[in-house]
Amino acid sequence: MSSERHDQNFDAIANKFEQNIYGTSKGRLRHELLQYYLVKNINLNSLDTALDAGGGTGEMSKVLLDAGVNVTLSDISNETLNIAQQKCANSPALSCIHSDILSLPSVEYNLVVCHAVLEWLRDPFANIEKLIEMTKVGGYLSLSFFNKDAQLMGNLLYGNFDYVKQGMQVKNRVRLSPNNPLRPKEVIDFLHQQKVTITSMAGIRCFHDYLKDTAMQQSHYVQLKDAELTYGDKEPFMWLGKYFHIIMRRDA
Fold this sequence. Notes:
The protein has about 250 residues and is α/β, with parallel strands linked by helices. The chain has one domain: Vaccinia Virus protein VP39 (Rossmann fold), CATH 3.40.50. The protein is built from ten helices and seven strands. Strands 3-2-1-4-5-7-6 form a seven-stranded mixed sheet. Strand 1 (about 50-55), helix 3 and strand 2 form a beta-alpha-beta unit. The longest helix has 17 residues, at about 25-40. It is globular. About 40% of the residues are buried.
C-alpha cells in the first residue's frame, strides 16, 4: 500500500459526512463557534464576495449568503456540492466549482474561508499560500484545522497509549478521521513569513470532547457553549481546542 498522501474526497460518503458532522453536538458546536468568531471579527454585511474553499455541504456558505455575500463554493466532491446547492436553495448568489484548492482560478475575494479542510490535504502549506493569494489586499482569510497537539492530548486522556507511541498512525484509516492534523504554532510560524496580519486566534471545542460524562454534550449544550465562548480565545485554553481557528488580514 502506498504511503503517499492524497487529498480526501467524500463523494462516496457525502450523506454520511453530513450526518456525522452536522447531525451531532460536535459538528453543531464547531459550526456555531466558527460563525461566532467570523461575525465578531469581520463585518460580513460589508463584503461583496467570498470563497468557501473546500466548503463541502455548504454550511458556512449559507451563513455568508444570508449576510448578502456573493459566494463561490469549491470542493473536490460533486456529491457534497449537490447537497450544498439544495441547502442553499439554489441561490443565484452561489457559484459552485468542482475543483481542488490548488487548481482554482486565481480570482481574489474579500473573504476566503477554509474550515476543517487543511487536515485532509496532501500539502496544506502550499494550499495556505494559494488561499492567501486569493484574498484581496485588505481582505480576510479564515482558517480552521484539526489540532495535532489536542489530538495527542485527547488520545492520552482516553488511554490510547499504544496508538500515541505509533505516532497516531493506523494501517486502516477511518475515512472521517483527519489524516494530516497540524500543530497551531507551526501554522502560526508559517503565517508570520507571509504578508498577513493575524487578527484573531481561538480554540474550537476546548472542552466538549474532554467531558467525562459525554451525555452532557447534549444535556448541557447551552452551558458548554457558554464556556467555549468565554474561554476559547484565551490562554491557555485556546491551545486545547480540537480545532484551531485563525483569522488574518492580507497586507500586500
